[in-house]
Amino acid sequence: MAHEDLDDVAAELYALPPAEFTAARNARAAAAEPALAKAVRALRKPVVAAYAVDLLVQDGQLGEALDLAAALREAQDDLDAAEMTRLSRQRRALVAALSRQAVDLARDRGVSVSDAAVADVEATIDAAVRDAAAAAAVMTGRLVRPLAATGVDPVDLTDAVGGSIPGVVERPAPPRDDLAQRRARRAAEKAVREAERESSEAARRLARVEARVQKARERADHLAEREADLRADLERVAAEAAAAESQVAAAEAEREQASAAARAARRGVDTAQAALDEAEAARS
């Protein structure tokens, strides 16, 4: 079976709305030669974002974007910073405009495009502009799933297209053990990041608690000092009060003595006065 046969069938099927894809695929497979029928049945239904980009390709509106992609790569190779800046602005504007057109084409055919799918459409067109292999995949018009460019690694095209991708060598899938190891490594790296984040948060929380403890300790020490001072003042005042009470008692005793002496003196005066009165009376 030649790739061209499958690619031709796939191109017709991926031009249909996703809701019609499965029935049409099964019908084409039933009518095809056995070898081709098996490959047709293996074609996967496109997601809405991929369908919208396929419509854009079929409508012939991606040529300008791919010309810009070539210019961007040439500017990057030449390290022309000014040209890169200008072309990057142009790329973002063009990608946004093409994304809107792709979404409009899908909606014109009665296919609803969610906000998440709109974002996938824009990411896919951006990947085609950034990456030559992604551009080749998109330009088949047989895209099955959205693409994304990291700007560092090549765009992952695994199971991205129904049929072949002209000019792109298919890379064999990595061994299952290798996939399991990479998943385990990613899980371990994620666990390390989570543990580091929790450790950092715990350290910050400990620092905040230690600051509160230090502040509480300083306040407790200050109050303890004040308590000691007040106790010393209380003891001094109590001693002074006791001394004052002793002075009061001594003064009261002295007052009693003075009062007794005054009464005795008063009686002496009264006696002397009486004697004087008697003498004067006798003389007269």
Model description:
The chain is mostly helical and 284 residues long. It has a domain at 3-171. Helices cover 77% and strands 0% of the residues. The protein has 9 helices and no strands. It has helices at residues 3-13, 18-31, 34-41, 48-58, 63-78, 81-108, 115-130, 132-139, 176-283. The longest helix has 108 residues, at 176-283. It is rod-shaped and about 180 Å long.
SSE blueprint and pairings:
Blueprint: H1 3-13, H2 18-31, H3 34-41, H4 48-58, H5 63-78, H6 81-108, H7 115-130, H8 132-139, H9 176-283
Helix pairs in contact: 2-3, 4-6, 4-7, 5-6, 5-7, 6-7, 7-8
What structural class should be given to the helix and strand makeup? mainly alpha
End-to-end CA span: 179 Å
Strand fraction: under 5%
Q: Using only CA atoms, what is the Rg?
A: 52 Å
Q: Largest sheet at a glance?
A: none
Show unreliable segments: none
Q: What is the mean predicted local confidence, pLDDT?
A: 84
Helicity range of the residues?
A: over 70%
The tally of strands reads 0
Number of helices: 9
Shape: rod-shaped
Spell out the helices and strands N to C.
HHHHHHHHH
Report a brief summary of the structure.
With 284 residues, the chain is mainly α. It has helices spanning 3-13, 18-31, 34-41, 48-58, 63-78, 81-108, 115-130, 132-139, 176-283.
Record keyword descriptors for this entry:
284 residues; mainly alpha; 77% helix; 0% strand; rod-shaped
